[in-house]
Amino acid sequence: MTSKQPPLLLEYWKPPKPVRHHRANSRNLLSSTPDRPLPPIRTNTIKSREDYWGYWESDKKLPLSTVTSVSSSTTSTMTSYSQNPFADDIHMMSHNIPAGPPPAYKVDREDTLAPRWWDVKNWSKKSFLFAGLALAAIIIIVVVVAVEVEKSNRYPAYSALSYSLTDTYSGTSFFDSFDYFTGYDPTSGFVHYVDSAYASQYNLTYATSDSAILRVDTSVTADSVPNASTGRFSVRLTSKTQYDQGLFIFDVKHTPYGCGTWPALWLSDPNNWPAHGEIDVMEAVNTASTGNQMTLHTSSGCTMKDVKRKETGTVLYSNCANGTNSNAGCGVRGNSTTYGTGFNALGGGVMAMELRSAGIRIWQFFRDAIPSDITSGSPDPSTWGEAAADFPNTDCNIDNHFKNQSIIANIDLCGSWAGTTSIYTGQDDCPSTCQDFVANNATAFTNAYWEFGYFKVYTAS
Q: Which residues does UniProt call coiled coil (predicted)?
């Protein structure tokens, strides 16, 4: 047998010609080699057609003694059978591999598929650019959301402080610790604030061992001398001592009310408003049907918007800065029993205001619910629960906005709040106009008075 390459038909694969089965013990007439039984059919030698064709692609030829192609009139002859590494599978090739072109290689099939979008090896520069921008946007959104969530959850510790009594305003000497403001009202009130001598003459301020009274005049008429044609007499007191921080306890037995009235118990720096802030502890107008209002007034940069607060009152406005919302400040309102007839009918109560770096909190306790630590002179705000109004330092630097605070008590008449038509007649259904009513109805102000039991100021030690 001469040496030559495998027949071309093996490289392009055509079904092999059928192998003629021989009977046992018979002789092949065309071969001098005794017949040998065919090997058993092996189906596990070549797992797939890919394996089969991979073999031919890598080898390209077989040993010369392996396969001989003969004409159709002869049978396939297998010589040197034991030396042919592929001879055992010839039978399988004849019976188990279907006709047709060879299957495509795996890599060929993948080359025909659309590129996978998640495979960065297929990305263009534009794709990388868009991906980078999207990632940056996601990071910005996550950071902004995280900051807002963190901000909404910020809240001062309000850790317990040990307070010691510093000042007491009580008894017959109550008014000795105050200055009397005189002149026309800076808030456009229809009122004449009088000095100590006039206040005593018209019985507008007086004190006993148990109470201090501050009231509106009920004797002067529009035609008397003096008269109320340009405003009614009233009083505005300012404490001589000023405070930067502290715990303030106000025993309030009676609150002023009535058409045309605008009473307030508050703290401020009379010489530097609003830069040094204002804290309204009790405030209402006319019939006071809407309850007590607790408010901060400041320069710009103090807000309670989107700030976590712990309070029982209802928020009115969030921006504390002067000039916003018609200078309404950031107010919190109590229910209808927190001021006026409802509050007075309960025997009054105690207002407690804590001014500290962490924030400003105001509590209101009715007469039968005053904490024992207040009555015993050892107040501890950490045990009082939620305040009626809470103004934390989250977005308001308390130390910067509140300095040199004097205690102020007054009863204004009409003015830019109580005298406004929408409030005077619209909200409180008061008669005539505010100024006309105040000038001509002296006896209408019999309930327009403050009665205080005492003021006490504590400082943290």
A: none
Q: Do 56 and 199 reside in the same domain of the chain? A: no
Q: Which neighbouring-strand residues pair with 313?
A: none
Place of tokens 């797992």: 47
How far out from the chain centre does Cα 411 lie? 39
Co-location of 46 and 75 in the same domain = yes
Give the residue from 87, 113, 139 where a domain finishes: 113
Environment class of 126 (CB within 10 Å of its CB; exposed 0-12, middle 13-18, buried 19+)? exposed
Domains identified in the chain, total number? 3
Catalytic positions, written as ranges: 278, 283
Same domain, 309 and 245: yes
Mean pLDDT, range 57-70, rounded to an integer: 43
CATH classification at residue 276: 2.60.120.200
Q: Which pTM value belongs to this model? A: 0.71
Cβ–Cβ under 8 Å, residues 189 and 216? no
Residue 158 in domain:
no
Evaluate if residue 20 carries a pLDDT over 60: no
3-state secondary structure 402-449: CCCEEEEEEEEEEHHHHCCHHHHHHHCCCCCCHHHHHHHCHHHHCCCE
> Scanning the structure block, which residue is given the tokens 């501890």?
380
Residues 105 and 129 in one domain: no
Q: For 85-131, write each residue's pLDDT tens digit.
A: 444 444 444 445 555 666 655 555 555 566 677 777 777 888 888 88
For residue 4, what are the CA distances in angstroms to 1, 10, 17, 79?
Answer: 9, 13, 20, 15
Tell me the C-alpha distance between 355 and 163, whole Å: 12
